[in-house]
Design brief:
By secondary structure, this protein is α/β, with parallel strands linked by helices. It folds into three domains: about 1-175, 2-Layer Sandwich (Alpha-Beta Plaits); about 185-425, TIM Barrel (Alpha-Beta Barrel); about 440-535. It is about 50% helix and about 20% strand. It has helices spanning about 1-5, 20-35, 50-55, 60-75, 100-115, 145-160, 170-175, 180-195, 230-235, 240-260, 280-295, 310-315, 315-325, 340-345, 370-385, 395-405, 420-425, 440-460, 470, 490-505, 510-535, and strands at about 40-45, 80-85, 90-95, 120, 125, 130-135, 165-170, 195-205, 210-225, 225-230, 270-275, 300-305, 330-335, 355, 385-390, 410. The strands form three sheets. It has an eight-stranded mixed barrel, surrounded by four helices. A five-stranded mixed sheet has the order 2-3-1-6-7, sandwiched between helices. Strands 4-5 form a two-stranded antiparallel sheet. Helix 16 (about 395-405) links the parallel strand 15 (about 385-390) and strand 16. Helix 3 crosses helix 4 (about 60-75), helix 10 (about 240-260) packs parallel to helix 11 (about 280-295) and helix 16 runs parallel beside helix 18. The longest helix has 26 residues, at about 510-535. The protein starts with a helix and ends with a helix.
Length: about 525
Amino acid sequence: MSLQQHARHDPLTGLYNRMELDDRLEQALHTADQHQRLLAVAMLDLDNFKVINEKLGRLAGDQILVEFSQRIQKSLRSHDIIFRMGGDEFVLLIENLERWADLEVVMERIRMTLDRAFTVNQSELRIQASIGVTVYPLDDGKARDIIHHADLALHQAKRHKTAQFYTLYDPSSFYDPNTPQIIARQQRFRALLAEHVVTLYQPIIHTPSGRIHELEALARLEENGILLETGEFLPWLAAEDRRKLSCTVLEQAARQWRLWQDAGQSVSIAVNFEPQDLLLEEVIQSIENTLLRFQMPAGQLIIEVLEGDEFLDYASAKAQLGRLKELGVRIALDDLGTAYASLLRLKDYPFDAVKLDQAFSRHLEKRPRDLHFLASMLEMANGLGVELIVEGIENAEVFSAVTALGIRQVQGYAISRPISAGEISQRFLGQQISMQSSSSSLLVSFARFLVLAKGLRAVLQSMPQSINVQLTCDNLSCPLYPLMNIIPSLREQRAQLQQVIADIVGNHLSSEYSMEIYDHLTANILNAMAAHITAQS
């Protein structure tokens, strides 16, 4: 239940996330049919938020996102819901609308609240938002179609600003694949696929050694000297075009692997494929042929499969993944956490690694309690015999904390953004990366004590007589000792914990009662540390 609670909430704003939206939207559609009411689905994001982030910094950007979500929430009625999809993108479910005018009232409230300036770093900042709206049952699509239609309306709102505060989805202009605008955009990106695919690489660091053993290959399209990111072109590509893109990236990555290998630099490369592509014989054959052409050992290729319930529901999915495993290819489940049910079925599929969605690792420096969740995920991954890769590591302190937690593979901007193969060669291959934060970091101490408390508990339960109390609680090895002047309450709590450990080892307390006291004390210590870290941030 704790894992599911984390999986369904955005760690920054506390709002429901994309996973919860799927369930809530299905319920809302059913309720709208049952009571014959209108249901509005609105997708909105902040204009030029990337520029704001770059100028003011991520902390200021996060502050804006939190305040933005709070303002929107206050504008909604009690039964309406706001979700954070990621980044600066949000979705609203506006239910139980008797008439069109009810929607207008809600949208006017949102407009009025966003007219007020945001205060950032003691300065006022005016921020505009773009909103796309679709209304059921006027839009009679399925749940996924409805989200897509709201997204199309959002893109239209961003491209063509009008006097109206939001843009309503119009199937005659959006959904018809034969409209000149849609055709032109598809042809534009399809033409770039022929000769303008550029593959960048983002390193994944092996924390025990500090070396790069694996890279993720990421697609870009080059247009007039500018590299377009996937979010700018993937939505406009047909399934066949996206499949072609994945195969092109695979070929470029394999060719680059051969160049590195010939230069004496060995590294594994991960390439993303959409789940449905792996059900096709031609894709499996293309992967096998590419490995043969470049004489790339299958074990140095990782196929990253985006998590999705539908894919894992296919009977043929397991067989196709099994074929890749027979070739020797490693398989990773990407963005774990967006569909929690998949986690429970990992034991049935031949995954070698799982990549934890960055929503669970970002802002750890402000949300230290999330380290409990990462520790649980690591324990589960170890139990399943798969490697856990944590994405979204954005600074040295978080890097050190997750390393202290025992996580062996991490990826994120703290290490590097996606960069060219040449930069990878110069900066990373064959070199040891050092990213240690301050030894006095409270977040790192939190992680160290969390690991110590878990490990010590297991030994106290099974072999208490093997513990040397004096050595275990020695000032030099105890992560709490350097913090007692910073957090005074830790001094007494540490002394109490040492006494409880001595009582358990000396068999002075009943096993059940002593472990209850131990759990209570360690929880209080972790809570005190977390409260101090949160207050500082």
